[in-house]
Amino acid sequence: MLQCNIPIKKKDAALQHPIINPKTQKKVDYLDQLEAEAIYILREVAGQFERPALLFSGGKDSICLVHLALKAFRPGKFPFPLVHVDTGHNFPEAIEYRDNLARELEEKLIVRYVADTIKEKNLQDGKGKFPSRNGLQTYTLLDVINEFEFDACIGGARRDEEKARAKERIFSVRDEFGQWDPKKQRPELWNIYNGKIDQGENVRVFPISNWTELDVWNYIKREKIQLPSIYFTHERECIKTEHGQWMNFNEFVQVEPTDKIEKVKVRYRTVGDMTCTAAVESEAHTVDDIIAELKDTKISERGATRMDDRVSEAAMEDRKKGGYF
Amino acid sequence: MELLRFFTAGNVDDGKSTLIGRLLYDSKSISTDILETLTKQSKSTGVDADIDLALLTDGLRAEREQGITIDVAYKYFTTDKRKFIIADTPGHVQYTRNMFTGASNTDLAIVLVDARHGITEQTRRHSIISNIVGIQHVLVCINKMDLVNYDEEVYNKIKEDYTHFAESLNLKKVSFIPTSALTGDNVVNHSDNLKWYHGPSLFEFLETVEIEQDFKTQEARFQVQYVIRPQTEELHDYRGYSGTILSGSFKKGDKIAVHPVDLTTTIEKIEKFGQEVDEAHAGEPVIIHVSDNIDISRGTTFVPVNDSLQTEKTFEAIVCWMDNKSFQPGQKLLLQQNSFRSKAVIKEIDNKINIYNFRSEPSDGTLHLNDFCKVTIKTAETLSFDEYANNRKTGSFILINENTNNTVAAGVIA
Fold first, then answer.
1. Looking at this predicted complex, what is its ipTM?
2. Could you tell me the domains of chain B?
3. Entry pTM
4. Which of B55, B60, B332, B383 to mutate against chain A (most A CBs within 10 Å)?
5. I need a labelling partner for A115 at 20 to 30 A (CA). Which of A157, B146, B342, B364 fits?
6. Is residue B283 within 8 Å of residue B331, measured between CB atoms?
């Protein structure tokens, strides 16, 4: 517990201010700098907005965000709830992790279901062999933003993931339809973040914009952050796609007669939907194994695992313009 | 491992994106799937080289279509020694604001010079902007050496010209490297074509260049971002001021002045991530507790007592106008400095800075997109600041249009 009333030694008050000798000062590690930047951004959100939210997916990036929020706000409560848009295609391990985390931290968790949105709005569910709800989750996201009148949504997107993301601001203003307009972005200078918006607009905030996949893993290692088990190697029944990716065999997949269901040793590099996230063959049991594996890999994170970016060269840019994260 | 943030300035024609592409490609920071996509795209754009490396950084559809960089793009690569964050900024004059933006939080500028053309208006403009934004170290890459037969004379002449020009600026350090981004000469690997050059390759330079971090040794500055008050039963009286140490360091027991209320108190406790610490240094996120119950809220600044911090409602600054719409006299603005915000007006436009020769010129009474002007600003609340040359954290601000909410200008207090 924290002690608040420490007696002050009056005679210490006149202490001279120390000047650090540049020769002896210890060099700050890059992870400390990335961490400090993210915490600064989280506190700016708390200071600038009335009703912020943290979008939590159960993936490693949003888990890091929660860890950073603990560092930014404890012993206080988070100044925002955790919000999860549940597509119904999530990995059960990620859902279990989400619920345990919210319970242990005693923080508020809001879950909204894409299945409900489909019913309410009479939408067409994802079709095809691997029916994706990736596009549909934008509807649920915009609905939950409206329902709670969130003025800022914190997300774990990183600029190294994708080239449209590389262009997005840390404070990214969205209009009342949630749309991103890459041509009208506010200049973002120094560490000064302008979160001023009109009623109905919201800001998407990306505190770990400047982290790479490897940075995230190095941070997880340093901070000993626990993750859902699917990030580590396990045996899984999979189907190989035409692009050679391993897709989890599950109730949503339309299995064709020519498909071979194989048991493969895999892990997930990203945790999205079961229907649009591919597994990678891996023997990595520990965070150290994963870091070693990543240093050797020649394929990018999204390239290895995401089916949704393959559609076109500007797939992400277009989805963002439509209100996606 | 250290972090180095740098930005690149130059036109597509100077091979800027190609240079970055080359850095990423030759340092093996590009994944094979991205390379595959690029190869496909390069074929469709009809560029001669096998892979058009510039396509790596131009992430928006409009940029790929027009073959120019419009916005700042951030790229990352890591070596055994450093993590690098590159702000790739457009070179065209109409994107000056984007360049200023990209430069604002970096430590090093790479200015590209086309060996065939030498120092141009653009080189001067990029260097002057680097100067205003307070970049300590400028690296001049004399590029396209392959097109001048790798001639040492050409390199020396440009080096001499630039050195002469830089004397009029306050750039602390300037370095030169001859390269060819297209062929890869001297980018990562040393080149047989440039045997007369004995310095480091660009890559070696980036890995070893010393970056002075003045903010660590400057006077102590802290600004409150958010007040933490758990208001639970066991933490009923807890009131902690969260924020990041902007410069210098603070110790438990330090007597501090609190601005703008202008009261003094003592640091009772410093917490970092739930642990009490005796001392906290520049760049560290902390929670500070003080011994007196005084009016402290978001935007309040802490400094040691008897400090040189300035507290004024009227001050002079150089601003870069960033809005498409020109400044209108009497326009209602908000000034934001870190977490401090106040209503503000531009009282007077003193003069305009010519960004090609750094001279002052008479102003036409307004501010247009990409203009740099010396102005007098008046704020409603007292601003606590240092001159930008002395402290980048407390000497910089943005101006927000109260009506559109857009960031319309960036300023450095001069």
1. 0.92
2. 2-212 (3.40.50.300), 216-304 (2.40.30.10), 310-413 (2.40.30.10)
3. 0.89
4. B60
5. A157
6. no
